[in-house]
Amino acid sequence: MVLRIALIAMLYYPLSIGLTFYQKWFIKNYKLPLLVVSGHYILKYLFAVIIRFIYECVRAPRMRVSLRDQMRWLAPIGICASMDIGLSNWALEYVTVSLYTMAKSSSILFIVAFSLLLRLERWRNSLGFETGLIAAGLFLFTWKSSQLDLTGLLLVELAAACTGIRWTVSQLVMQRDDSAVRHPLDMVAHVQPWMMIPIIPMIWLFEGAEINWNSVFSFQGHYDPWLVVGLISGGGLLAFCMEISEYLLLVNTSGITLNIFGIVKEVATLLLAHLINKDKLTELNICGLVLCLSGMLLHGMNKRRQRMSRSLVDTDHQYSLLSKSV
């Protein structure tokens, strides 16, 4: 299990970090971020459907989910995921990567709150301590690294709340024994249509006046349809692979652990940005990094202890049943 999670994480990190820098660069040169996101949704759906079709031709038919179950479980995931991704990409138009990371760090608080509300996690003092360490550490790590933009900050905080709902409900659905969407490919295929519902009115409301044939297919002021389609397709492929790796991590861990993996990614992204831009880390930034890593280490140790205690309980239970049968 540990090796499997490590391998999935090795897939997740380069995809996620690469997509962050790719989208930041692309959105700076292409002023329709919500339209780009909707293109990614369509491409992810097509990738998932095509792979499922090939799988069904070679192996066995995949599971189908009824409309009732989709509306009950998958619609909230899709709508919140769309709001999360759309608002995050929109926020990158207003804020730097550092400020985005600082504000998005609050998502772990939302995930813990919703996990407790849905009874996916039990309250423990250690859980509150770990969460506080990580959130405070990441905040200090990015403190004064960029100027405050209220519009961008509000967008990121709304995205963080959507993140909390998205991953806790996804964990609830994918980790159920009777779930029809335990496989990440099935999850992506069924969720993408619901993700289109909130993004379409947002595009019409905020970008509708700017959308025309010339603006859609122009990049850096030059009309080049093939380049625009290629760049959006490249981002869509990265997004598809990253979403598959996220769901793989979620199936094997939890929403909180997945968010911690995401925070490790954000810290690595910021360190890489500091190295590329030759920025210096202050003592306060380094102190925040230490707090953040300490919280992650404590969370990992507590998760390991819980797994060991559960395995011991299961072993004792099996031994007692065997003794009764003898």
Automatic annotation (TrEMBL):
- Residue limits of the Sugar phosphate transporter domain? 4-298
What's in the keyword line of the UniProt record? Membrane, Transmembrane, Transmembrane helix
Q: Where in the cell is it found?
A: Membrane
Gene Ontology CC, one term: membrane
Question: What kind of membrane protein is this, topologically?
Answer: Multi-pass membrane protein
Pfam families tied to this protein: TPT (PF03151)
- Superkingdom is Eukaryota
- Which residue ranges run through the membrane? 7-26, 32-53, 73-92, 98-120, 127-144, 150-169, 189-206, 226-244, 256-276, 282-301
Can you say what this protein is called? Sugar phosphate transporter domain-containing protein
Q: Organism, per UniProt?
A: Caenorhabditis briggsae
Taxonomic classification? Eukaryota, Metazoa, Ecdysozoa, Nematoda, Chromadorea
